[in-house]
Description:
By secondary structure, the protein is of the alpha+beta class. The chain contains 10 helices and 20 strands. Strands 1, 2, 8, 9, 10, 11, 19 and 20 form an 8-stranded mixed sheet that branches. It has a 7-stranded mixed sheet with strand order 6-5-14-15-16-13-17, covered by helices on one side. Strands 3-7-4 form a 3-stranded antiparallel sheet. Strand 15 and strand 16 (219-227) form a beta hairpin. Helix 1 runs parallel beside helix 4 (103-114).
Amino acid sequence: MNLQADVCIVGGGPAGTLLGHLLAKNGVSTIIIERSAGVNRQFRGEHINAETEAILKEHQLFKRIEELGILKMKKVEYFSGRKIVKSITPGNHEDHVGIHVPQGHLLTAIIEESEENKHFQLLFNTTVKELIQDDQGYYTGVKAIQNGEEILISSKVTVGADGRYSTVRKLAKIPTVEMTHGYDVLWAKIPAPAGWEPTTRMVLVNGHQLALFSQTGGLIQIGWNIAEGSFPTLRKESLQPFLDPLIESFPELEESIKEHLQSWNNFVCLKVQSSRCETWVEDGLILIGDAAHTMTPTGAIGINCGMKDAHILAPILTKAIEEKDISAGQLKIFEMNRKNEIKTQQIMQVLQETTFSEKFA
Ligand SMILES: Cc1cc2nc3c(=O)[nH]c(=O)nc-3n(C[C@H](O)[C@H](O)[C@H](O)COP(=O)(O)OP(=O)(O)OC[C@H]3O[C@@H](n4cnc5c(N)ncnc54)[C@H](O)[C@@H]3O)c2cc1C
């Protein structure tokens, strides 16, 4: 099968899907290819901040997301044992300190709002295999596999929005600097007990952060920071001593923990790393979101950074296509617009990680 579009976006996560929606709205024909079969992803960034909320409102997407289900966080609380030692409440004119939005709801809303647009096409079960270049080195599309069949997509611009392990980045041989942060995160989900307030709760356990995120659908996502690379050893030990500090701080969760965290298999380990690409653009090629800059889970900003990339890139890319200049020099405007902010946010993440224990002093 041969397809054609102005832009081919590899990766239908938050960054790629929002970009596809905005480009199509601008009349730029766009094909998104996504290797998953649908919109549901397990354990991803699902907390959006006030800035992303404003972006989604600006593009008339927020209402539909809200209808599908969101949960506004009332506070962030820091616990020492059972005692609250610090509490962050919403600023003036705000009614939350973050919003939980399941990625399934976010992606569904954006896709639904794009469905009527003839310039928007999303192909699930489709995995990029090869980038195509012309004689001058411009990227002019991709080869992908869809349900076992090879398809060819010709495009003026290819966007790699395919996440932290970006295939597009690797195929384009774009160097990336990866940093580890001395910890990994174990994620687990349990049902919240009746009356559990939608608040983000933080506890310091043996020098490590333990975070509880209230979620839509009456769930709590728990994230334990553990020493980097320690999960294989940890999972050989008994689980109960690991759970004890959590129960000690939140005895009201004991029943739910006993029922839903019975083995290490109930946990997913996220290898924590951050990265930054030396360049985000080549002739006819752009990287956005985690593909360009993986963030650590600190402050839950990864999804927000990726969606802001899409919001900033859409008008720049629309103009570049209209003006028929998709050279790296032209596309660099996007990189220049975003790179410093991302760098600052990554520095802030490290600062927050290294000073976390001071919040409990
Ligand atoms: C396991 C995990 C847990 C996370 N937890 C948190 C958290 O708690 N808080 C937080 O803020 N952030 C978290 N993140 C990061 C957050 O999810 C990302 O920052 C955010 O989703 C970035 O959006 P994105 O669109 O750039 O990339 P992604 O959401 O990663 O989307 C990339 C998309 O590309 C698709 N794809 C990949 N390769 C190919 C290919 N070859 N062909 C076609 N499609 C492809 C993927 O299926 C995916 O849908 C987590 C990430 C992971 C992987």
